Amino acid sequence: MPAVVVLVAVLALFALGYRYYSSYLARRVYGLDPDYVTPAHRYSDGVDFVPTNRYVLFSHHFISIAGAAPIVGPAVAVFWGWGPALLWVVLGTVFAAGVHDFGALAVSVRHRARSIGTLAGEVVGRRAGVLFLVVIFFLLTLVNAVFSVVVANLFVSTPSAVLPTLVTIPLAVGVGQYVYRTRSAALLPSLAVLALAYASIPLGLLVPVTVDPLAAAVGLTPKTLWVVLVFGYAFAASRLPVWLLLQPRDYVNQQQMLVALAVILLGAAVGLDRIVAPVVNDVPDGSPPWFPLLFITIACGAISGFHSLVASGTTAKQLDRETDARYVGYLGALGEGTLALCAVLACTAGVAATRADWDARYADYATASDGATGTFVAGVANFAANLGIPQSVGAVFAAVVIIGFASTTMDTGVRLQRYIVQEIAETARFRPLARNLTLATLAAVAVPLALALAPGDFAFGTLWQLFGTTNQLTAGLALAVVAVWVTKNSRNPLAVLVPLVFLLAMTSWALVVNLVRFASADDPVQAFLLAPLDALIFALALWLIVEAALALRAAWAARTARPAAPADGGRAQEGAAGTVGADHADPAEPAGSGER
Fold it and tell me: Global pTM?
């Protein structure tokens, strides 16, 4: 089948989802109110709480969630065939990710832009809140550690990509200063930065940047030194005001994403590349089953708990109008689904001209997993070659795209982990850590840095196998919070309950499958480390199911005592809805009372 046919059909389905389904969610489920005073205005401080144009905020949100995971997950999952992978990307994006991301943002905005972890304690129950904070901290540790390794590996393997990546940082700061001081549009300055970054690709090919001499001088490997440097950058970036680096760099990377999508779309159309991979692959004996593991392999790109952390962590603090949540939250999920779609096509059509070529790259599950990033880069380079772009330049372009996504996700991820460290410290009544931003940021950096530097590629090669289930458990927790909130406000919770039940069922099933696989493995790391951790996550999943069921039952019982909320936002009903009343604080409340 021609790749361009699949591409156009899926994009059409995404457009229909935004036009009709997100509109239904905005009116009937989340009840967005254009007159509601958002936390960005109520607690405006010029650092974290900054009212932001929805187009700029979309860029921040989308690029923060669009890291390496929506590329790696689909690139591995097509091992089972492109049919199941694409079906989950489409249905998961429209009916699960959009509901999840949009809902987490809407609920957080109605609760002073508090994180989804804190909201779990307020909306579902204190035990659920404690559980959520622990799971979130573990998830963010994995994401920050592994993405630093991804960036370091690409810097080592593709030194030509270092210069185009580095030049964007000071230029993005200049854009941030210009836009913030002059209140001008960010489009033209960001396009200029992107043009300069692309213009530096040929120079990067001529003068590749390495840290080998410095690494040798300090007694480290180049990869280790890059990891340390990446975390040093993330520490500094997470302390800067969001308008100075986070927003402008995300906006530049959004333009880069649009260019990448255009290269893939036009390359597939001009080259008339056909999908050579099977719809459903006849995998070798002993391979992991696609059902249910597909639903944790493709997390980002279908539904991902990490998105709720971004939505309630940084995005909610910048939302200018509550009605912008539809554009930022739901459309952001569609953008991530589009990236996953492109990864599927690059790894099934762009990377190989014949079935035999494709089979060589996907001979078994281990080969598919180890070569996922390289397969995507090769696929994008081949699509670029159809447009007359040399493959060497196309490969550097693809590497710069992945590095840009991974590093900007770390910008947000470390900032989010600082928030979680402060919330945990506040819960434990350890005020010095809760109130000291430098100390909290150091703690947020130190834990994932130590994991990334662990010997034997421990973060990526070992613990990352738990990412999918941990991430989907986080998504289940977020959906449970949203479902309880929607139910308490006398709105229809079915749109939230369906993906919640499906996700918890698939995650629990996948945990059992992996537990059996880890426990029976000859590898002692799997048997004595991953198996107990998997069992712990399974116990947490069961705990979540019980907590969510109890909270939903209580919410349903409470809603029967009052009339249904009006579809225009239901502000009067929300004020009487138990835990939701707190989100209507006095607009004159001091800005310093917001969470930071």
Answer: 0.84
